[in-house]
Amino acid sequence: MKFAHMADIHLGHRQYGLKQREDDMASSFRATLKLALQSDPDAILLPGDLFDSRDLRPKVLEEAENALELVPDDVPVLVSRGNHDENLTPRDVTWLNFLHRRDQIVLLETALRGEGEAATFRPYDPDKDTGHAGFYDVETDAGTVRVYGLQWRGARTDTALTQVARGIKKTNADNGDPDYTVLLGHFGIEDEVPSLGGNVTHAELREVRDVVDYLALGHIHKQYSSSDWIFNPGSPEAHNTQEAHEDWNHGYYEVTLSPASEGYDGPGRLAHSVNHHHSRRRPYFRPPAFDVTPYDTHGELFEAFRDHVTNHESNLDSVLQQEEFLKGGDQRRPLVDLRFEGTLQFDRSEFSTDELADLVEDAYDALYVQTNTSRVTSAEIEELLKGLDDDEVFIDGRLQTEALNSASSRLLRMNLDSARGLKTSQLSLVTPTEWRRPTKTLRTSPSSSRSAAANSLRMKPRT
C-alpha cells in the first residue's frame, strides 16, 4: 500500500502580478502529480490550499481539472479545505464541492459539534450528492486505510482536534477499526518552524495520536516532520524569497505501508516508511548582498555592481542546472532576490535601484528582480548619529525612542541636498520594546549601537 502526500498548491497565485507565475503554480502541480504517480500510489492526499483564493477565474478551475485528469480513476484524490480555499464563514457551495461532485476529488470535512462533544464523520458514498464526506476507506491487499479530513479552523484548531479525536473513536466503534488511520489537517505545529510560529502544540495532539497513525499537514510551506507521525511536505512552489532559502525543501511525500513490528507505537496494524521528494519549480537566485559604502557616486557604484553581477554568473548557472529547477530538461528563467547594504556616500535620490534591477534582469535573463534596501542607510544619518551620546541612545540595553525622534527632527530641518524629499513617514522609528541592544556590546561597542540606531532611521525598502 502506497500513498502520496502534497499540499499548498495555490492554483491561481499570480505572484508579483506575473501571469507566468500563475502558470508556474499549475505547471508545478502537474509535474508533482506525474512524479508521484510514477510509484503507483493507491491514493493521493492534499490537505488544503489547492486554490489560492475561493474566487476563481475560469482558467484556474480549468487548470485544476486538467491536472486532476492525470490521476487514474481508481486512485482517489483526498482533499481537505485550507484557509485559501475557504475562510471561516464558508459558502454553501465552493469550487472544492464542485470538484467533489464531479468525482475529481473526494472532499473530506469534519462535522463539529458543541465544545467537548465528539465530531461526526459521514462515510463517503459515491451515490449521494452531498458535496463532501467525512472519511474515506482505501481498501488494499495490505488492509484498510481510513482517511479523515479536518478543514481550516484557525485559532479554534485546538478545540476542534479534541472533538476530532473523540469522533474518530466513535466512528471506528460504529464502522470497525481500520488497519491504519490518516488525518488531513491545515495548521502549523508550534516550534517546528520557529520563524513562522504555529497555533497547535504537541500537547494538544496527544488525544489525536491515540487514534491517528499519520497526520498529513499543509499550511506551512516548508517541509518538516516530527515524532515519525507528523508530516508536512512543503508547497511545490516557493511563494516568496524566504521560502526560496536553501534550507526550505519543497515537494511531496511518498509513503509506503507494511505490517507493523512489535515496537510500533501507533494505533494501527500497519506502519509507514516515508520518503520526501523535491518538486519541480522555478528557481530563485540570491546573490550575496552588495555593499554600497565604498562608492562616492552612483556611477562608481553602478560599475562596481556590474562586476558584482558578472562575478556571480557561475553561481547562478549551478543553481539553474539543479534537477528540481528544470522543466522538461530545460533551464528556466530565475527570480532574483537583490539585496543592498551599507552606507550611501551620495544623495539617496541618485541611488537608482530600478536601473540596477534592469542590469540584473538583462545579465541573468531573470523573470523578475526583487530589490531590498532595508539595510542601507545614508552618510547624513550616520554623521548625525555621531553627535549623539551613546548612553543617551541606549539605556539598560534599550533603544530610546525619544532620542531618535529628536535626531530625526533635526535631520529633517537640515538644509542638505540629501534631505530634499525625505518624508517623516519614511523614517522607521521603533518602540523601546522592539529593540534590544546585545549585552556583550552594551559598554564596549558604541559603533554597533549607532549602527542599530541608524537601521531604525532607514527609509522603507522598495520591493
Structural class: alpha/beta
Sheet with most strands: 6 strands, mixed
Strand tally = 18
- Element-level helix/strand string: EHEHEHEEEHEHEEEEEEEHHEHEHHEEHH
Q: What is the rounded distance between the termini?
A: 47 Å
- Report the average pLDDT across residues: 85
Shape: globular
How would you describe this structure to a colleague?
The chain has 463 residues and is an alpha/beta fold. Helix content is 28%, strand content 20%. The chain is built from twelve helices and 18 strands. It has helices at 19-37, 58-68, 95-101, 157-175, 206-209, 298-311, 313-320, 353-364, 379-386, 390-393, 401-413, 446-457, and strands at 2-5, 43-47, 77-80, 106-107, 135-140, 143-149, 180-186, 214-218, 224-226, 230-232, 251-259, 270-278, 284-285, 290-291, 335-344, 368-378, 394-395, 398-399. The strands form four sheets. It has a six-stranded mixed β-sheet with strand order 4-3-2-1-11-12, with helices on one face. It has a six-stranded mixed β-sheet with strand order 5-6-7-8-10-9, with no helix packed on it. Strands 13, 14, 15 and 16 form a four-stranded parallel β-sheet that branches. β5 (135-140) and β6 form a beta hairpin. Mean pLDDT is 85; it is low at 415-463.
